[in-house]
Amino acid sequence: SDDASKLEMIQKRVSNGDADAIYHLGNKYEYGYLGLPKDVTRAIELMAEAAELESVEAHYNLGVTYYYGDDVEEDKPRGIRHWQEASMKGHVLSRHFLGVAEYNQGNRELAVQHFMISA
C-alpha cells in the first residue's frame, strides 16, 4: 500500500540517523498514522531522540507536550526548556509560546520581548 511505502522510506532515513525522519516517525506514532499503532510513549522517545539530534520541530513538539501535559504528566519547566532550545535555532512558534508562558507567569515585559522577536 501507499502507507507501507511511505513508512519504509521514513524508516530507511531513520536508520541513517536523520533527525527530521526520526521526528516524523514519532509524529506518526503519536497519532497512529501510516498503519502504525497509536503509541505516545514511543512517539515521545523518538521525538526526544530527534531533539538530541537538533530537530527544532521535535523540541517544539516536546515543549507543547510537556508544558500542557498532553499525554504525559505536565512539566512546565521541561516544556519551556524545549521551546528555548528551538527558539535559539530560530523556531518562531516556540518563541511565541515562550512569550505566552512568561505572560501566564505575570512577566509582561519579558512576554512582550518574546512576542516582538516572534513577530
Any overview of this molecule?
- The chain has 119 residues and is an all-alpha fold.
- It has seven helices and no strands.
- The chain has helices at 2-15, 19-31, 40-52, 56-68, 76-88, 92-104, 108-118.
- It is elongated and about 50 Å long.
Any descriptors?
7 helices; mainly alpha; 119 residues; single chain
Write the layout of secondary structure elements.
Elements: H1 2-15, H2 19-31, H3 40-52, H4 56-68, H5 76-88, H6 92-104, H7 108-118
Helix pairs in contact: 1-2, 2-3, 3-4, 4-5, 5-6, 6-7
Largest sheet: none
Work out the strand percent. Answer: under 5%
Provide mean pLDDT, rounded: 96
What is the helix content? over 70%
The total of beta strands comes to 0
Quote the distance from N terminus to C terminus: 42 Å
Secondary-structure class: mainly alpha
Brief summary:
The chain has 119 residues and is mainly alpha-helical. Helices cover 76% and strands 0% of the residues.
